[in-house]
Amino acid sequence: MDAVTDGRRARGDASRRAVLAQAVDLASVEGLAHLSIARIAEAAGMGKSSVATLFGNKERLQLATVHTAQDRFIATVVEPARVHPRGVRRLVALLDRVVAYSQDRVFPGGCFFSAAAADFHAGPEGEVRDAIAAQLDDWLGYLAATARFAAERGELPGLDPAGDGPEQLAFELQGTFEFMNLMAVIRDDELHYARARRAYHARMLALGVPPSIADPVLEAGAALRVPATE
Fold first, then answer.
1. How far is 205 from 199, CA to CA, in rounded Å?
2. Contacts of range 192-201, beta carbons closer than 8 Å, 24 or more positions apart
3. How many Cβ atoms are within 10 Å of 165's Cβ, its own excluded?
4. Which of 8, 170, 186, 209 has the most crowded CB, counting CB atoms within 10 A?
5. Are 220 and 93 in contact (CB under 8 A)?
6. Secondary structure of the chain in HEC code, one letter for each residue
7. Shortest CA distance to 177 belongs to which of 117, 223, 88?
8. Is 183 exposed, middle or buried (0-12, 13-18, 19+ CB in 10 A)?
9. How many CB atoms lie within 10 A of CB 64?
10. What is the pLDDT of residues 116-164, one digit of tens each?
């Protein structure tokens, strides 16, 4: 591959990243279903033919947008919680980060995936809908796996790691998040973030988590602090 081809590819990759950074923000506000070659070209100040060259068609653009949103979610929620080894401290850190993810408007319209799921939940099956569902499944699965590992280590005395207990817990935790995100965005206030933190805190205490480990979820960022003994 010659230098000219390398340079052209690098410019194309940079353009694609720049367009997708705008696409995820736009879709979180206007809806992924409404994201099109024409709409993102307008928002990015590019010609439709240039955007079409990068993505091919509307569905390819939407799929790339979902994957970009997933990368941003992982970088914002999952990776910071990995300051802790697997176990209950990481679970608490994940709960802290997922509240902050909505509150800090990592996507301007709140949670990208909540909005995208609402757009596509009753629509026809297809790759975009499957990609949204897969990301939600991955997140719930990660929460459940983290909870199961903590329970197996005796860090969640009230949770039986056998059977469906961790999956049920993940479902309940995500249900709190969904209503928090919906109400906080539609009301544009902070109250529901505090309510979600209190709900997570109460759930952890009810499962036998010591206050010293559960309490940090009440304060944004506190769960990321690594104790000197860890």
1. 10
2. 193/99, 193/102, 193/103, 196/99, 197/96, 197/99, 200/92, 200/95, 200/99, 200/173, 200/176
3. 18
4. 209
5. no
6. CCHHHHHHHHHHHHHHHHHHHHHHHHHHHHCHHHCCHHHHHHHHCCCHHHHHHHHCCHHHHHHHHHHHHHHHHHHHHHHHHCCCCCCHHHHHHHHHHHHHHHHCCCCCCCCHHHHHHHHHCCCCCCHHHHHHHHHHHHHHHHHHHHHHHHHHCCCCCCCCCCCCHHHHHHHHHHHHHHHHHHHHHHHCCCHHHHHHHHHHHHHHHHCCCCHHHHHHHHCCCHHHCCCCCC
7. 117
8. middle
9. 19
10. 999 888 777 899 999 999 999 999 999 999 999 999 999 999 999 999 9
Low-confidence residues of the chain: pLDDT under 70: 1-12, 228-230
CA distances, 100 to each of 27, 94, 226 (Å): 20, 10, 18
Q: Which two tokens stand for residue 225?
A: 């602090």
Q: Which two tokens stand for residue 209?
A: 């988590």
Task: Return the amino acid letter for 8.
Answer: R
